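Q: Could you predict the 3D structure of Adenosine kinase?
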Amino acid sequence: TAMASDEPKAKKPKLSEDEKTDSNSLFGMGNPLLDICAVVDKDFLDKYSLKPNDQILAEDKHKALFDELVKKFKVEYHAGGATQNSIKIAQWMIQEPHKVGTFFGCIGKDKFGEILQQKAAEAHVDAHYYEQDQEPTGTCAACITGDNRSLVANLAAANCYKKEKHLDLEENWELVEKAKVYYIAGFFLTVSLESILKVAKHASEKNKLFCMNLSAPFICQFFKDNLMQVMPYIDVLFGNESEAAAFAKEQDFETKDIKEIAKKAQALTKVNTKRQRIVVFTQGKDETIMAHSFLSGLVQEKPLDQCVRAAHYSANVIIRRAGCTFPEKPDFK
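A: Sure. Here are the predicted structure tokens for Adenosine kinase:
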């Protein structure tokens, strides 16, 4: 509606205490990794039998890859890990207050671990790492060719997360209880199913929002038993088109239509019947499929279409930059 020019501009209403987003209201748990990013050539991909666009766990045949990447190509180091990145982006979109996002994961007592701690603090994320000295901090090689990137994760310390050594500690569990929204990438299913189930059951019992990402085709294929143990607690399920296809194949959905896959995933058994599951499948530059939000919007209780717009905006900003980095403030209305 047009306003007469002499009318005073409406002041932005101050948020009441109820409407403010509290600190620690978003909780994430996952694999904190230091990304080692480089533009490589096809020979390098072929040498280590990597697909141009994929995400895999490092095997013995990939051990030399990390050293060769650093020696042969110009590398950049960025704080990474799928869940940790998502929590950082949600914090960036929300801006104030700081420490809306909490993150748990396991690192080593080393230089890379210190970098991850420093980067989490700079992003105003409240990271509480379980630190151990058996394994070094995990890394992820991001091998870039053209528009594609092949990710090879050497979990190392990230694989050493222990429920009884960290999640169960009173001061840590209190942070879990403070949260309203929970987000865990499917990648963490390879590390600590018992930790995920403890958080998922808490969310379900308290009617809070539990979100999970399929993360990679290999999770849907080789960790499907773990995934399906968590599925009844998932309120919002995220994935992309290749993960959706792998999930449908493993679950015998007998369809390749992404909208049908979303509907079938949405209809799977659910423990907390007060919330209908929402399924969100992204398709790169093509439309996002949503069966009936993304983290910063969900934490602030925004309508779903606005959540999707916020996600598209932040993805659009971040895809243009090296690593999971962003400008000082978002320009999102």
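Q: Anything worth pointing out?
A: Residues 232 and 270 are 4 Å apart (CA to CA).
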